[in-house]
């Protein structure tokens, strides 16, 4: 995935003269600087049932140094040229294991040749939810996922129904993974410090992660319901043009945040005979 045209401009692949890699605002970078926090994140994976680990956005390798010590095949994926140059210079063990690419655009099955792998990292705030959705799309290959998010996003992913932060991301992630909120991280351990706290969570894929309903319809129902989260499902799901006798079911009198993931699956099964998933 290397861009040979970019290589023709050598200064882009060199670290700054003072040896420091500076965080880039447009990439949403906040480099972790606290060693104990990095070690705790490295311990957030169980390393059970797989031998491959992908770190997203290693930056200056603060977390990477602890992952290298694990008995796993580690690869890192990094879009920032300065960070790639720094990693190559300071982590010789990563030779041949650095992917110079955008995770969101990468062919995920090719990373470990179709073998299962875990994901971890200190994720850029501006793409963290997209990373989760990309993971859900490739859940067959990803039994475990851990990492650092903006605290609000981490709480949203882990939120249970009935909570104000519970939403689309909560339902979809919890349909396929068990979520554990592990610990909170203060802004002071980053360079530059973000304006908010961060949170580390772990997603462990469920033993049975195949839905008993039409998956595309399930996604559609969840997203449609939360687009008008203050309305009851009877009103927010009008687009499905369901028969009146079905809409009289008690579940349609509830608002979306009142439904657990399992309840959304049941709702989809009720709708499925009348709706065409697109």
Provide a quick synopsis of the model.
With 278 residues, the protein is of the alpha/beta class. The protein has helices spanning 4-7, 35-42, 64-67, 81-90, 128-137, 151-158, 168-176, 215-227, 233-236, 244-247, 261-271, and strands at 31-32, 52-56, 73-78, 98-100, 118-121, 144-150, 177-185, 190-191, 198-205.
Write a structural description.
The chain is of the alpha/beta class and 278 residues long. It has 2 domains: 202 residues, Rossmann fold (3-Layer(aba) Sandwich); 60 residues, Helicase, Ruva Protein, domain 3 (Orthogonal Bundle). 31% of the residues lie in helices and 17% in strands. The protein is built from 11 helices and 9 strands. β2, α3 and β3 form a beta-alpha-beta unit. α5 packs parallel to α7 and α8 crosses α11. The two termini are 33 Å apart.
Keywords:
Helicase, Ruva Protein, domain 3; 278 residues; EC 2.1.1.182; RNA binding; 3-stranded antiparallel β-sheet; 31% helix; 11 helices; Rossmann fold
Pattern of helices and strands:
HEHEHEHEEHEHHEEEHHHH
- Individual helix count: 11
First-to-last CA distance: 33 Å
Level-2 CATH architecture of the largest domain: 3-Layer(aba) Sandwich
Which fold name fills CATH's third level, the topology of the largest domain?
Rossmann fold
Protein name: Ribosomal RNA small subunit methyltransferase A
Binding site for S-adenosyl-L-methionine: 30, 32, 57, 78, 102, 122
Subcellular location: Cytoplasm
Catalytic activity: adenosine(1518)/adenosine(1519) in 16S rRNA + 4 S-adenosyl-L-methionine = N(6)-dimethyladenosine(1518)/N(6)-dimethyladenosine(1519) in 16S rRNA + 4 S-adenosyl-L-homocysteine + 4 H(+)
